[in-house]
Amino acid sequence: MSRFTFFGTENTNIPEKTEVIDVQSSSDIILFKEGEAKYRSVQLAVIKMNGIIENHVETKLEYHVKKYINNDQLMVRVTLADQIVAIQPSYLQENLDLMSKIDVIKSNALVVVNPKTGKILRIDNMDEIKANWLDFKNEVKSSTSFVKSPEMRANIDTFLVNVEQQMTEENILLDFQVRPFFDLFFDKYLINDQFIMKPFTKLYYSQLFDRLPVDFKVTEEIVDETPSSISILKDGRLVEGNPHLVDFEKIYDSRYKPSIGYKFSGYDYNHETRVIYDLNENMLSDANMVITEEVKNNIELFVDYKLQRIE
């Protein structure tokens, strides 16, 4: 695999900090509304070193969602219906295609929504996900049965073991927290119409530095309203005093400095998201997320993610 990772290509087993959202409501009425929607997203992730593009990945996805209530549980069925991925340099394409197939297995999920936060509470179809993974695992074993090289055989076996460890409810829930679609769709608007603009802190898992976590503070602002929609801007900035910065510098010195030449010059992270919600259906209508992670003037990750409801 490439030394660079992007949203939706790999999982992380690092424990996530739970985001607590204070839903202030004058009653216990949940505004969750049954309905269906289809979305398409386009994500471009670009790595630059010394201002020159090292590689870039373009990912196009189509999600279908169905919201419904079953036995007083707020349910959402998510289906990843289509997927197109392309990477440059092209020799990385085969590895990316393999990881993308695993993403499909994990993304076709039936989830229960937390009635207090709008986030995912649990996954209800883990047996289905594990069965699909087992089918895929057997396909990989069958298609690589001709491999005689002990080194290649060991690499394949290690890959399958590592992926199998991801196929637990806990790890898939962690994975959903760093996937733009799941992070944007599952939020407080699903269950509450009280948009309280309060700063909060989230974790970002570094794409440049082995997914080590960094805290960033998010401020929210309502930028547009109509009787049927609301548009919110979320601005994220790095929280000072990250304990992993020493580790970042060590990784930089061993991995990037030999190619770049320049010493570690300081780490920065910025995150801006604009979302539009349909208040009549309690549905996400549109979203745009831009992330910049960099060692100043030396290496930069730029991610541009756009999501649009098509039906």
Features:
alpha+beta, eleven-stranded antiparallel sheet, 6 helices, 26% helix, 40% strand
Low-confidence stretches: 1-27
- The chain-level mean pLDDT equals 88
Q: Report the total helices.
A: 6
Largest sheet: 11 strands, antiparallel
Task: Summarize the structure in words.
This protein has 311 residues and is α+β, with helices and mostly antiparallel strands. The protein has helices spanning 93-107, 126-143, 150-166, 169-177, 180-185, 245-260; strands at 35-49, 52-70, 73-88, 109-113, 120-123, 200-205, 213-226, 229-238, 267-278, 283-295, 299-309. The chain has an 11-stranded antiparallel β-sheet with strand order 5-4-3-2-1-11-10-9-8-7-6. Strand 7 and strand 8 form a beta hairpin. The protein is globular, with a radius of gyration of 20 Å.
